[in-house]
Amino acid sequence: MFYFPKSNLGWCPVYKACSSNVFSHFCGDYFDAETCQDKHIKMKNYDGGFRDQTQFRESVPPAENEKRFLVVRDPFTRLLSNYRNKVELLSHTIYMEAFVDFMTHFRPVRWILNKTNKRKAAYAAISYAKSMTENGRPRIPETDNPYLYPPYPTFTEIVSAVTTGWPNNHVIPATQRCGPCGDTKFDFLLKAESFDCDINNMLEFTDNERLITNSQRWSTNQTPPLNMTMFYSYYSTLSDDQLDNIYNLYQDDCLLFQYPCQEHIKNIKKFKLLNPDYKHEYRNTWNGRIGDWEIIS
Predict the structure, then answer these.
(1) What is the pLDDT of residue 219?
(2) Whole-prediction pTM value?
(3) What string of H, E and C letters represents the secondary structure of 112-171?
(4) Is 295 helix (H, G, I), strand (E, B) or coil?
(5) How far apart, in whole angstroms, are the C-alpha atoms of residue 80 and residue 280?
(6) Partner of 110 for a Cys bridge, out of 8, 145, 204, 293, CB 3.0 to 4.6 A?
(7) Neighbouring C-beta atoms of residue 252, cutoff 10 Å
(8) Concatenated DSSP letters for 181-199?
């Protein structure tokens, strides 16, 4: 939980649910306009900015009129947004070790490698993808590599990792992260799908109208906006069991925040049935010679 002292508002961030846009609204209370254009500004480490609520309460008691809010997002689009930004763009290098683990553990390959060689091959593939992401002029892979198709974890592999317990803040269910049914009570529930309207209403209600004008958005990725064609393309790569596992993981989010998760699963399965030969195409995939291994799609 974070606390914005100048607004008397507490917020539990659900990452990949408009968290950067929440920062953009409140940044103007603590920094100048130029500084607020940098989405990487570490506001919580600034003496005059907001802090982790437990630390802040050590010296400052809660205000009587303090309100708390939560922003949530459809679990299926949130999970896919995390994949397109954090995995396909390799925007967080701190996950490289985890990505190598996922690729070597979940990807079936015909070319039998020992454990050490598998990790080296996966590292080499990710390095290739990273060079393409950074400057568009990737290094040509030196040798054929079963992890070049694609050179980062597939959506299937990430879903397998998430549903088997990957403890990543960007994919943890909102109900687990923020506990709205537990001791933490929230006064406002905002949704990413109607974020601008919801946050404006909250700011007006809490006498923070000055923050409504902070409409500057921090660009969090360079991916095209998600549309339903992309949605079905990615989710068509999953097995029926994986779709059911996603629902089991996010079931509380789906029910509590009234998202149509079961309808998503029904429509994805229908898409797969009507398009049995459809193959999803991953970005930044090496188009050189294909060795004796299966292309992952």
Answers:
(1) 46
(2) 0.86
(3) CCCHHHHHHHHHHHHHHHHHHHHHCCCCCCCCCCHHHCCCCCCHHHHHHHHHCCCCCCCC
(4) coil
(5) 14
(6) 293
(7) 15
(8) TTT---SEEEEGGGHHHHH
Paired residues of 190 in beta bridges: 71
Task: Find the mean pLDDT for residues 167-196.
Answer: 88
Tell me the CA distances in angstroms from 239 to 54, 82, 269, 272, 278, one per residue in order: 42, 19, 9, 10, 14
d(CA 272, CA 231): 12
Residue 12: count other Cβ atoms within 10 Å of its Cβ.
18
Distances in Å between the Cα of 255 and the Cα atoms of 19, 64, 159, 170, 243 are 22, 32, 20, 20, 16
pLDDT, tens digit (0-9, with 9 covering 90-100), for 232-264: 999 999 999 999 999 999 999 999 999 999 999
Give pLDDT, residue 202: 95
Please calculate the CA angle 231-234-129 and round it to the nearest 5 degrees.
Answer: 125
Which tokens is 230 given?
A: 């992309």
* pLDDT recorded at residue 148: 81
